[in-house]
């Protein structure tokens, strides 16, 4: 299932259309003006880039002493990040827990069920930045609001940025306590801590 | 009915058990059968309109308490000590349970063992004197015996001089295992070939088609189930029904309310104190020793008096049930006292496994890692090797309210849903079994369809041309054993290592 995250990305288009509709009859916009509108929007789109990363979200959790590796492959992220304007920068992400894979299909199905992600009721995991701080060269730490199921919590995510021209590459890693988010119950064998890796 | 016919004589000999006004000992043993408690102790049937309605508190406590006589072992006729039969007939009855003498924990456990072995039926509910004194009975059923020739699944009850009756339906009948070396393991998954024994009884007694159909309906009838598979079995005729009984292997048993079409594996009671549900379908909740006592009381035969909607398996109407006259049917005309139930529960709780001959090795240690890697720990979580949850069977949708009431692991592992969807005891769930003691158990899976642990990891079992190594329904030559498809892709070495580990548990 695709998460339809593009709704967020096209939001600027929508607001512009509303604006245009209010002030100008679109049929009255001549070719020159339409061209102007396109050029006017290009920088905006570049600023609020939405990407469907190639690398899945990866996570690791210890189960009976063995590290289980898992992924969530269906996710999108919207980035408007300028290291020089951290207070205005934004990173948002949305992931679809239905795409979770741990190497055992039945386990994945269980993780999608009501004891864990309960995807029927909570189809998305979302992450939204609140603030950023520099932590050395190309290194930052962000405070994000992470929502899993119906639990919203602030998490601190250290990450690095490598920039080539206009292309930005982010890499971050953080740990959550799955019980904080109602993911399963206390277990004698399954660790509470989940280590999460993101790259886009 | 065949059973009705043979029940009256011993009843006359025994008389009804004494009615006692005292069912509390010095201990503060709670009343187990209260209307309030019985309302929701059991899970609803998979078709909730036909959930069991047990007898009332008033009815239950009006039943007389059982008198427990001393019992004696049953020998294969060729191995019976000389003069034993005559000696038994010369004995006086000896009442062996006296709660006023039970003081220490050990006293209660010891008394519980005696009750565990005590047959609650002397009416020939399954087999009778003629059967066990016939050498053909042993050869045709493959009856396991001790080296002394003792058949440990039934006992002689001496109710007075010359009154020697074969006792059926003790706990020990289904929960005693004759090990390979001939030793007895009480509480284990039993290897009593009960359905083969019953088929022998029906055949050797020349019970008519109508009789065979009647008793089979009493045991397993569940006309309210969609498709009525037991009705179809009855319609298939005498020989086919007898074949169905014979198809049930040792280690499984078509107890009342279950099925010989979907026979349940005989449960292992060793470690039961740590399990949250009873029965393969998790029918009874196990929240305290009181639930254990409740289960013993219900399971030994009182569920014959249950109504499922308006249906009762022995043909009672609600008016007849509550008229005040005794119901003359095995196990339903008397009851254990609370003290007796408490003692049995104490004994069952005290059961421990024998020393495991399978010691950890390099191979089994590798298997331990595979066990974790394959995710087995999620359901078979150490140290109990079960997460103590109920998994819905294919075809059963978990009602929302169950998530708050019961321990649900909301994933089906795809095993045969027949037992839990098509029987009186079916709840729609299967209990996640503990893997402790696998080394002394088998056959495996809830329907005993696989004889060995190795078979579980054999991909061939998923094919329709597979011949099940354990239970195979009487009317098919081959059958896929589906579900629980874990570890199927392991290579042979890893499979062996995994099995080696499982045997150490």
UniProtKB/TrEMBL annotation, chain A:
<feature type="domain" description="Lipid/polyisoprenoid-binding YceI-like">
    <location>
        <begin position="48"/>
        <end position="198"/>
    </location>
</feature>
<dbReference type="InterPro" id="IPR036761">
    <property type="entry name" value="TTHA0802/YceI-like_sf"/>
</dbReference>
<dbReference type="Pfam" id="PF04264">
    <property type="entry name" value="YceI"/>
</dbReference>
<protein>
    <submittedName>
        <fullName>Polyisoprenoid-binding protein YceI</fullName>
    </submittedName>
</protein>
<dbReference type="InterPro" id="IPR007372">
    <property type="entry name" value="Lipid/polyisoprenoid-bd_YceI"/>
</dbReference>
From TrEMBL, chain B:
<dbReference type="InterPro" id="IPR009056">
    <property type="entry name" value="Cyt_c-like_dom"/>
</dbReference>
<keyword id="KW-0479">Metal-binding</keyword>
<dbReference type="InterPro" id="IPR036909">
    <property type="entry name" value="Cyt_c-like_dom_sf"/>
</dbReference>
<dbReference type="GO" id="GO:0046872">
    <property type="term" value="F:metal ion binding"/>
</dbReference>
<dbReference type="GO" id="GO:0020037">
    <property type="term" value="F:heme binding"/>
</dbReference>
<protein>
    <recommendedName>
        <fullName>Cytochrome c domain-containing protein</fullName>
    </recommendedName>
</protein>
<dbReference type="GO" id="GO:0004130">
    <property type="term" value="F:cytochrome-c peroxidase activity"/>
</dbReference>
<feature type="domain" description="Cytochrome c">
    <location>
        <begin position="157"/>
        <end position="352"/>
    </location>
</feature>
<keyword id="KW-0408">Iron</keyword>
<dbReference type="InterPro" id="IPR051395">
    <property type="entry name" value="Cytochrome_c_Peroxidase/MauG"/>
</dbReference>
<feature type="domain" description="Cytochrome c">
    <location>
        <begin position="362"/>
        <end position="505"/>
    </location>
</feature>
<keyword id="KW-0349">Heme</keyword>
<dbReference type="GO" id="GO:0009055">
    <property type="term" value="F:electron transfer activity"/>
</dbReference>
């Amino acid at each position: 299932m695709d998460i339809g995250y593009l709704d967020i990305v096209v939001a600027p288009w929508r607001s512009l259309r509303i604006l245009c509709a209010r002030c100008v009859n679109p049929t009255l916009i001549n070719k020159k003006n339409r061209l102007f509108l396109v050029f006017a929007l290009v920088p905006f789109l570049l600023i609020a880039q939405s990407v469907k990363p190639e690398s899945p979200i990866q996570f690791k959790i210890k189960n009976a002493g063995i590290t289980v590796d898992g992924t969530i492959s269906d996710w999108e992220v919207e980035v408007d990040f300028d290291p020089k304007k951290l207070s205005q920068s934004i990173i948002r992400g949305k992931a679809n827990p239905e795409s979770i894979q741990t190497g055992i299909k039945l386990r994945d199905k269980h993780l999608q069920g009501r004891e864990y992600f309960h995807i029927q009721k909570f189809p998305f995991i979302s992450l939204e930045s609140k603030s950023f701080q520099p932590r050395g060269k190309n290194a930052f730490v962000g405070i994000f609001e992470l929502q899993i199921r119906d639990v919203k919590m602030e998490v601190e995510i250290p990450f690095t940025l490598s920039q080539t021209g206009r292309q930005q590459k982010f890499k971050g890693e953080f740990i959550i306590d799955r019980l904080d988010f109602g993911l399963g119950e206390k277990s004698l064998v399954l660790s509470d801590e989940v280590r999460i890796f993101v790259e886009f | 009915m065949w059973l009705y016919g043979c029940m009256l004589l011993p009843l006359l000999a025994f008389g009804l058990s004494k009615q006692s006004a005292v069912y509390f000992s010095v201990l503060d043993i709670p009343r187990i059968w209260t209307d309030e408690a019985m309302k929701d102790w059991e899970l609803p049937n998979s078709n909730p309109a036909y959930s069991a309605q047990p007898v009332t508190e008033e009815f239950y406590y009006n039943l007389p308490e059982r008198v427990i006589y001393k019992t004696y072992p049953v020998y294969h006729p060729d191995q019976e000590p000389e003069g034993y039969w005559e000696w038994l007939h010369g004995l006086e009855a000896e009442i062996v349970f006296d709660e006023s003498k039970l003081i220490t924990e050990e006293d209660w456990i010891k008394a519980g063992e005696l009750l565990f072995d005590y047959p609650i039926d002397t009416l020939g509910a399954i087999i009778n004197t003629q059967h066990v004194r016939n050498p053909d009975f042993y050869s045709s059923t493959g009856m396991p015996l001790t080296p002394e020739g003792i058949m440990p699944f039934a006992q002689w009850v001496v109710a007075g001089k010359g009154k020697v009756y074969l006792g059926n339906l003790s706990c020990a009948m289904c929960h005693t295992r004759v090990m390979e070396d001939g030793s007895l393991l009480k509480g284990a998954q039993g290897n009593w070939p009960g359905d083969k024994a019953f088929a022998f009884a029906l055949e050797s007694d020349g019970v008519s088609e109508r009789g065979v159909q009647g008793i089979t309906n009493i045991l397993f009838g569940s006309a309210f189930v969609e498709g009525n598979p037991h009705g179809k079995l009855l319609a298939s005729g005498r020989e086919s029904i007898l074949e169905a009984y014979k198809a049930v292997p040792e280690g499984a048993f078509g107890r009342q309310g279950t099925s010989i079409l979907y026979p349940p594996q005989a449960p292992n009671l060793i470690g039961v104190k740590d399990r949250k549900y009873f029965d393969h379908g998790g029918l009874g909740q196990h929240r305290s020793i009181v639930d254990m006592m409740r289960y013993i009381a219900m399971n030994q035969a009182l569920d014959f008096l249950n109504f499922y909607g308006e249906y009762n398996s022995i043909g009672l109407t609600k008016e007849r049930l509550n008229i005040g006259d005794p119901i003359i049917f095995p196990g339903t005309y008397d009851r254990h006292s609370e003290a007796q139930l408490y003692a049995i529960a104490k004994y069952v709780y005290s059961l421990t496994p024998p020393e495991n001959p399978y010691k950890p090795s390099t191979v089994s240690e590798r298997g331990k890692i595979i066990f974790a890697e394959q995710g087995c720990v999620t359901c078979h979580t150490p140290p109990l090797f079960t997460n103590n949850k109920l998994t819905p069977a294919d075809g059963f949708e978990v009602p929302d309210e169950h998530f708050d009431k019961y321990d649900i692991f909301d994933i089906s592992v795809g095993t045969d849903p027949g037992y839990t969807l098509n029987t009186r005891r079916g709840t729609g769930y299967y209990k996640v079994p503990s893997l402790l003691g696998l080394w002394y158990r088998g056959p495996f899976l809830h329907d005993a369809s696989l004889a060995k642990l190795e078979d579980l990891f054999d991909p061939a079992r998923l094919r329709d041309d597979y011949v099940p190594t354990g239970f195979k329904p009487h009317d098919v030559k081959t059958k896929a054993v589906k579900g629980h498809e874990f570890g199927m892709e392991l290579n042979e070495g890893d499979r062996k290592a995994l099995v080696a580990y499982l045997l150490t548990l």
